[in-house]
Amino acid sequence: MPDFLDNGRVYYNPVDYAMHHIGGTWKTPILWRLRNQTLRYSELKKSLDHISHKMLTTQLHELEENGFVTRTAYATVPPKVEYALTEKGQRAIQVIDAIRAYGMELMREAGIDPDIVFKKREA
Q1: Residue 3 pLDDT greater than 80, yes or no
Q2: Residue 122 resides in a domain
Q3: Which residues lie below 8 Å from residue 66, measured CB to CB, with a gap of 6+?
Q4: Total tally of structural domains belonging to the chain
Q5: C-alpha distances in angstroms, 114 versus 28, 100, 108, 111?
Q6: CA distance 83 to 29
Q7: What is the pLDDT of residues 71-106, one digit of tens each?
C-alpha cells in the first residue's frame, strides 16, 4: 500500500519521494555542476556528456518547477539564460555529497582508486 499521493503520483516512502525529485540520470549531475557556481545553459550542456538539448531543457524545467534551481533570462542578443541553485538545491547538494562519499568508499573497497578514475574531472 502506498504511503501517499502527490500530484497524482504514488510514493511508497520518503526515499522514493526524494529520488523522484533529484534522482535519475541527469538531475543529480546538473545539480552537482551548479553546486558552486551559476552557469549558462551552454556551459551546462558542454559539461554534461551525451545529454540531448531536449533532455537538458526538460530536466532544468523540472528542477526549476520543483524549486531546486532558479532560471534568470537576460534580454540580450543573443539571449542569455543562467541557472543557479536555490536554498533547496543547496540542501540537495548535502545529500548528493553524502552519496558521492559513499560511492567513493565503495570504489575503494572494490580496489578502484577514485582519485585516478576522476583525475581529470570532478565526480
Answers
A1: no
A2: no
A3: 21
A4: 1
A5: 18, 11, 7, 9
A6: 14
A7: 999 999 988 999 999 999 999 999 999 999 999 999
